[in-house]
C-alpha cells in the first residue's frame, strides 16, 4: 500500500465515527462519536484537520446540507465514506490484528 | 450565494471523469481540465463570500444563534472565535466555529451550565490551536532560552 494512503490511528477513529453516523455525519456528531470511541475529549480542530486529510486521500467525500435554524441559518457540512475508505478500514483492522498477534494479544486488547 | 454542495459535486464528477478518461491528453481532456479550473475558482470565490459574510456578522454586536427557546445569545467568547478564525486552516474554519457554537448552546450549556460550558469551549479552542501554533511557540521559547535573548538585547543596543 502507498505510504501516503496509509490510514493513521486517529484517521481510523474518524472513519469509524463517520460510519457510525451514516446519515448524519457532520462536525458535531463525528466529534462526539470520536469522544466516545476514545473515552476522552477530542478537539473539533483535530477532527476537521483529519477530515481534510481523509478527503485528500479520497477516503471520504463531503457536501453541504440545507440551512439549519439551529445554527442561525448556516449550513452543515456532511461527510460520507467512499469505497476506498471502507477498504482502508479493513486494511487497518488487519494491521491491528497482526500487531496484536506479534505482542501476544487478540485485537480486542486481551492477552492470549 | 450559489450552492457550494452543487459545485463540490461537479468538481468531484470532473475529477473522476479526468481520472477515468482513457487518454491523458487530447481536446476532450483539456476541455474537462478547463472546466475543472473554472469550478475550482467558483468554489474558492464561494468560500471567500462565506468568510466575508461570517466575519461581517462576527464584527456586529452579537451573532444571532437560534436556540430551542428562540433566545439570541452572544458567542461564548469573541476572543476564542477570533483565535480560531485567525489560526485554523482557511478551508473549514467558519464551519468549525459554527459546529462549536451549535454544540455549546444546544448540548453543553443545558448539561453543565454556562460556567462549565465556557471551560469546555476553551479546552476545545486550546486543543484545536495547540497542534498548529504550539510547535512554533515552543520553538520560540527554546530559541529565547538559548541565544534569542542575547540577540534581542544586542539589537536593542543593550
Describe this entry's structure for a reader.
The complex is a heterodimer of chains A (112) and B (158). Helix content of chain A is 51%, strand content 15%. Chain A is of the alpha+beta class and 112 residues long. The longest helix of chain A is centred in the last third of the chain and has 20 residues, at 83-102. Chain A is globular, with a radius of gyration of 16 Å. Chain B folds into 2 domains: 1-60; 72-158, no CATH class. Chain B is 78% helix and 0% strand. Chain B has 4 helices and no strands. Classes of the chains: A alpha+beta (112), B mainly alpha (158).
The overall strand count of chain B is 0
Shape of chain A: globular
Structural class of chain A: alpha+beta
Helical segment tally of chain B?
4
Helix residue percentage of chain B: over 70%
What do we call the CATH topology of chain A? Arc Repressor Mutant, subunit A
Strand order of the largest sheet of chain A: 1-2
CATH superfamily heading of chain A: Winged helix-like DNA-binding domain superfamily/Winged helix DNA-binding domain
How many domains make up the coordinates of chain B? 2
CATH class of chain A equals: Mainly Alpha
The multimeric state of the shown protein is heterodimer
Mean pLDDT of chain A: 87
General shape of chain B: flat
Helix content of chain A: 40-55%
Percent of residues in beta strands of chain A? 15-25%
Count every helix of chain A, treating DSSP H or I runs of 4 or more residues as helices: 4
